[in-house]
Design goal:
With 126 residues, the protein is of the alpha+beta class. It has one domain (15-125): Ribosomal protein L17 (50s Ribosomal Protein L17, Chain: A, Alpha-Beta Complex). Helix content is 54%, strand content 13%. The protein contains 5 helices and 3 strands, in the order αβαααββα. The longest helix is centred in the middle third of the chain and has 21 residues, at 39-59. The radius of gyration is 16 Å and the shape is globular. It starts with 14 loop residues before the first helix and ends with a helix.
Length: 126
């Protein structure tokens, strides 16, 4: 008898691959401010990033936040940079998903996930 699979289907072979894919996309989103991907991955990334940023805000600046960040960011070498970005964007964090031109190879619809006011935060740093 067929059972319903209760997880996101991101065309990966297992649940662990889905998790690592979303973590890598989240890290790229925090580093660069925008990511271009397909619709299901964009929707999953938006939900993931909103939940993770709100969880980070609840932790504050304790040891728990450092441990959480180490677990949630894809690689350790980006964790300090992502922590700085999260501190800057924590109060007014919002993500937008906009459809862009289709991918050249297979004409799959592409979506751009951007952090709103990411560039404004970047100019305030300099």
């Amino acid at each position: 008898m067929r059972k319903r699979v209760k997880r996101l289907n991101l065309n990966q072979s297992s649940k662990q691959h889905d998790k690592s894919l979303i973590k890598n996309l989240f890290t790229s989103l925090m580093m660069y401010g925008k990511v271009t991907t397909t619709k299901p991955r964009a929707a999953a990334l938006k939900a993931y990033s909103l939940s993770k940023v709100s969880a980070y805000n609840k932790l504050g600046t304790s040891l728990d936040s450092k441990r959480w960040l180490k677990a949630e960011v894809s690689t350790v070498k980006y964790s300090k940079r992502v922590a700085e970005k999260l501190k800057q964007l924590s109060k007014n964090f919002a993500v937008s998903v906009v459809q862009t031109q289709p991918r050249k190879g297979d004409s799959a619809p592409q979506y751009e996930v951007t952090v709103i006011n990411f560039e404004a935060q970047k100019t305030n740093e300099q």
